[in-house]
Amino acid sequence: MAYEKVWADNPKLNKMELKKLKKDGLKIFEDIPYYAKHGFSSIPQEEWDYFKWAGLYLQRPKEDGYFMMRVCVPSGILSNEQLETLAGIARDYGRGLFDITTRQSVQFHWLRIEQIPDIFDRLKRVGLSTAGACGDITRNIVGNPLAGIDPDELFDTREIVREVYEFFQHNEDFSNLPRKYKISISANVYNTVNAEIHCLSFTPAKKVIDGKEVLGFHVKVGGGLSSAPYLAQTLDVFVTPDRVKDVAVAVTTIFRDYGYREKRHRARLKFLVADWGVDKFKEKLIELTGPLPSKGEDVQKGWNPGYFYGVHRQKQEGLNFIGFNVPVGRLSADEVFEIARIARQYGNGEVRTCNSQNLIIPNIPDKYVDAVLQEKVFERISIRPNTFTGYSVSCTGTEFCNLALVETKERMRRVAEYLDQHLELDVPVRIHMVGCPNSCGQRQIGDIGLQGIKTKTKDRGMIEAFEIYVGGTLYNGGKYNQKLKGKVDAERISEVLLQLLTYFKETKLPGETFLAYLDRVGIEALQTKLDSILAQVSTVA
């Protein structure tokens, strides 16, 4: 159906909005065959931004003509055929690199425009798509990676996620949003999708209606990270599973028609929700959906930020899912082929990606569990990773990303390895490293967040450095981590973290988590310790 661009006459539209009025982002799919035939030099520079709608970003440096590609994986669920197709793309075109993102997508690098049509054909044959993986559009829908097998879910959300995802795919009624737009849908009671950081989240709830207990969702709106992070707020509505798509469409319509389009840095839904408040937002939602019941009972019990290491019973008798650590989310194509073979040989072929950049192999019968764990590929991709390696997350960084200020992916791997070699803890500490304020590595929710910056020194000019944030959690509604004063030379970050975490070990109680420790001693204790460390290591202050 056609819709009216009610913002079209706004004289203050930013430059990108003016471009989108002339050409919808999804139209790039029609142009790519021509560009592929005539080469990168045939692409006008003013067209580069449109490639985002096809899940493509130009790598750093843009002029070299290499693309990064994201592939949408709703709820992180991949069939064996899909996984092998992705591995083949990584092998044939992506120099063997296969990255899992913090939104359960799969990411490739080093792609040339000439290769894109064949990649699209391969993806289409197995039901995968890059549409909406980037751009001002609905992104990949994050879901419970255990959907359908989960003892801790109220009900199976796979078909709900699929319905919503397919509605927005290539839908030009919703491909011109003010900015990127992120949805999560989960019925797991431990918030495996980080619901509070999304624009729109459906979280498990129940309500007595006409004397009968009904299972469904509560709705959170207005979450988001970047340089102005907001926690999503809960609307006073209860949504039954059959109405999730209606509500998702209505919320997206509100964002499309009322979201801010004057300044790109204020164009996310979180700013509209913050300005309107949840009561006004609910009123506008009801105008579009018709009556919805008021909130019921929130059944969430806690927060699992995407970690499922080890062997676990499924709700299907005799079957297990096994959670593996993928260090900073990076696999080789050869490893992915091996994982696909193992999933096919011992399970039903499925593999599932997590927002912690890790993976799960489900549906393993009891009798095959030991055989799976003895496979050689699972020496590096372990069910029992070392403490810091197992709980480290990283964005792409300057290796490929034009927005990043510092190198992150390999650095985070090395930092975690260094800490594992020098320090043992009785609790995990989640460390998230990001290369810029956009926070694709979700710095704000880490126990420790490391944000890359450039800073000026007297003797070396501009150098890569990090700011340290502590205390992020999404437990019980959530709170974002707080910045400690001081800037740490990137070359000294391992040493500084080791001293800071050694102090934590020496002053914590047995079994005390990093968050509980902060609640007990306060952020000032860590600030004082960091001040003394920075003075000793002669780093950037």
From TrEMBL:
Stored Pfam families: NIR_SIR, NIR_SIR_ferr
Nitrite/Sulfite reductase ferredoxin-like domain: residues covered: 61-125, 312-375
Transmembrane segment boundaries: none
Sorted UniProt keywords: 4Fe-4S, Heme, Iron, Iron-sulfur, Metal-binding, Oxidoreductase
PROSITE patterns per UniProt: NIR_SIR
GO molecular function: 4 iron, 4 sulfur cluster binding; heme binding; metal ion binding; oxidoreductase activity
Residue span, Nitrite/sulphite reductase 4Fe-4S domain: 135-287, 393-531
Matches recorded under InterPro entries: NIR_SIR_4Fe-4S, NiRdtase/SiRdtase_haem-b_fer, Nit/Sulf_reduc_fer-like_dom_sf, NO2/SO3_Rdtase_4Fe4S_dom, NO2/SO3_Rdtase_4Fe4S_sf, NO2/SO3_Rdtase_FeS/sirohaem_BS
Keyword Metal-binding: yes
SUPFAM superfamilies reported for this sequence: Nitrite and sulphite reductase 4Fe-4S domain-like (SSF56014), Nitrite/Sulfite reductase N-terminal domain-like (SSF55124)
Keyword NAD recorded: no
Family: Belongs to the nitrite and sulfite reductase 4Fe-4S domain family.
Alphabetized PANTHER family for the sequence: FERREDOXIN--NITRITE REDUCTASE, CHLOROPLASTIC
Protein name: Ferredoxin--nitrite reductase
